[in-house]
Design brief:
Elements: H1 3-20, H2 30-37, H3 41-47, H4 51-73, H5 84-95, H6 97-104, H7 110-128, H8 139-159, H9 166-182
């Protein structure tokens, strides 16, 4: 992708994220986004047909960066083998807490939550397929279980003003569900147990 296109898309995405902190998603117009990005509406429509497409792409870019960080910092270990993976997710959420509070809260959009769950489950499923056979519980179901648990605990954490550290949350997520999930693969997952 051309550098100018990337920069324009990044400006539009950043404008939308800023606006989400100020008002409800449904109240945000394309004009609001382009005004904030200091671009014209024609530029927006050159790249996106609707603001939903912009939001989806912006979040997926953010999630791609998160996954790249997880893979770089965990040296290819599976998410259930190393609580650092979940810790990185909680750190990411803490870094962008204001935005995630909006997206996951009462003002949030259902399609955002659904998209995030699918994204997380797809990542987990790719890892799980390498170690769990389809003979027992379907791998996709296991992946959605783990992604849902991570998502639900993250929402609780945000709603309660992040009373615990990302490391604490990751360790407890692992204690709550990862050991049961990956027992299907016969992997020992408890940190310092």
């Amino acid at each position: 992708m051309d550098r100018r296109v990337r920069r324009t898309r990044a400006m539009l995405g950043q404008a939308l994220k800023e606006l989400l902190l100020e008002k409800d998603y449904d109240a945000i117009t394309v004009q609001d986004i382009t005004d904030r990005a200091d671009l014209n509406r024609a530029t927006f429509y050159l790249h996106y047909g609707r603001k939903e497409v912009l939001l989806t792409e912006t979040l997926e870019t953010q999630f791609d960066e998160l996954i790249a960080r997880i893979e770089a910092e965990t040296a290819g270990q599976y998410i259930w083998e190393n609580p650092l993976s979940a810790q990185i997710v909680y750190e990411h959420i803490a870094e962008h807490a204001a935005l995630y509070k909006v997206l996951f809260g009462e003002r949030g959009q259902g399609f955002v939550i659904n998209r995030l769950l699918k994204y997380m489950a797809r990542y987990d499923e790719n890892q799980l397929r390498q170690v769990i056979s389809e003979e027992g519980v379907p791998v996709a179901l296991v992946a959605y279980h783990f992604a849902g648990a991570l998502f639900a605990t993250a929402v609780w954490w945000l709603e309660n003003d992040m009373p615990y550290s990302p490391e604490y949350m990751a360790d407890n997520l692992q204690r709550l569900c990862a050991s049961g999930v990956v027992s299907l693969a016969g992997v020992d997952v408890m940190r310092d147990a």
